[in-house]
Specification:
Length: 204
């Protein structure tokens, strides 16, 4: 699934309101941008929410993944303190999801699990951003020997690996946290592998 903003976000997404803050003052907008990695539109979000526990989510409807491979390009504002966001997956609703969140001002990436609205940090590590306007965030959830683990990459480098099996199949999307202005582009999501057999069963 390639979620090009001009074609998908306009009619096949759902916005979820998570966290402690409620009210107006945030929006997701498709905008033309000649500097976009995949011309010619970007998905821009602005949130005036002051609480650091305030999440704003947008998820793709009609897609359910148990082991997703999700990537996105992100552009942060000049004032990087105003930009915190990333990817959500395993989304059940506004109070049940996983989040991989980049804080460029703090140069950190963390992976969290939200259950019944309560956030638990599963892992956190420092990042070394490349000197480029658009950064890449990628999240893969895999399973080996009945253990589920989440690998998170930033600008091509593996940053955080955690084990967790709390949430299973769910939707994927994007999020921002707190008072934030971010741009997103080139969103891709595919199942990392399929449980379906490679061939039809024998006819006997």
């Amino acid at each position: 699934m390639d979620l090009r903003p001009a074609e998908v976000w306009r009619g096949s997404c759902r916005i979820l309101d998570a966290g402690v803050w409620r009210g107006a003052g945030w929006d997701w907008t498709i905008k033309a941008d000649t500097d976009a990695p995949s011309l010619s539109n970007i998905l821009a979000v602005n949130s005036s929410c002051q609480a650091v526990t305030c999440y704003r989510l947008i998820v793709a409807d009609g897609f359910q993944y148990e082991y997703p491979d999700v990537s996105v390009r992100m552009r942060f504002p000049v004032d990087v303190t105003m930009g915190v966001g990333g990817v959500v997956f395993g989304v059940k609703d506004a109070t049940h999801f996983y989040a991989a969140v980049v804080d460029l001002a703090m140069k950190t990436l963390e992976v969290s699990r939200v259950v019944d609205g309560k956030e638990t940090r599963l892992g956190r590590s420092s990042i070394t951003p490349k000197a480029v306007p658009w950064h890449t965030l990628r999240v893969q959830r895999n399973s080996i020997l009945s253990k589920d683990f989440i690998e998170t990459f930033f600008d091509g480098q593996l940053v955080v690996t955690v084990e967790d099996q709390s949430l299973a199949i769910g939707q994927v999307g994007l999020l921002v946290r707190g008072q934030t202005a971010l741009n997103f582009d080139s969103v891709h999501a595919i199942p990392l592998f399929s449980q379906r057999p490679l061939s039809a069963p024998a006819a006997y």
